[in-house]
Amino acid sequence: MKIDLERIAALERANYLGMEPVAVVTPGLEVILREDMILTSSQTYPSPDANHACLLRTDAQKVDGLIEEVITYFTAREMPPVVLVSPACLPDDLPRRLMARGFKRQEPDETWMFMDRLQSRTAPRIESKVKVRTISREEARLFAGVMVASYDMPAEYVDSLAELFAPSIGAPGVMHFLAFMGDKPVATLTLMRCQDIATIGSAGVLPEYRGGRTIFNMAVEVLLEAQRQGVETVLLQTSLGAIFERFLRICGFACAFKRTTYILT
Fold first, then answer.
1. How large is the average pLDDT for residues 23-37?
2. At 241, is the pLDDT very low, low, confident or very high (cuts 50, 70, 90)?
3. End-to-end CA distance of the chain
4. Cis omega before residue 91 (within 30°)?
5. Looking at beta carbons, which pairs linking 183-187 to residues 24 or more positions away fall under 8 Å?
6. What is the pTM (predicted TM-score) of this model?
7. Are 105 and 259 in contact (CB under 8 A)?
């Protein structure tokens, strides 16, 4: 399924509009939405996922100045400048201009998937042994611990991630979910809503529970919650490759666009 560039731009922007309530309550997290680009940075979580520029949209005469502004922004924060390039970026030769400034293309690309017409969809049957619920603020560290273990991140990231997630628990349009097998938390997921578009993120499953229906059951529960909130379009991002993308297509998602990461080291 192909979608036009203006729809790609709208979907990409909606992801960051959904982040605004999180940025308002989270110390050190900044989201700047402009017509010519979007900037996001986090003092707590030093990853390109949280520290980058994207949706650069300007003309050939102004783009070099925009790139210089990105470099200045991240250099002032002692972070490597990162630009994520989607098909909606302008001008078309933005990748060439970035590489001419010393940016290096990274692998793999991000794949953004979307599901439209959520209100008209019927939920599939799920296994009752997987229980899913939203978390309280007191469970921020529990959520972070499951996420760190799911992503095989260093254990010392738990406290910083908990600090990052805690302020947004209960924020408008933001919901963090844990899935349980019995009393054991085994998976994480976050839903961020902006009007009738929602983004699913922070998806992680403990290694010993992968390969089953845990994440499927959790996703269904989260999509049902999005449906109850009037969401019509759901977005998510993955870098896990063709096999997982095929699984998402089976679940009803389609490929919206891909983004390439460029880092100035």
1. 94
2. low
3. 36
4. yes
5. 185/142, 185/143, 185/146, 186/146, 186/214, 187/146, 187/150, 187/214, 187/215, 187/218
6. 0.90
7. no
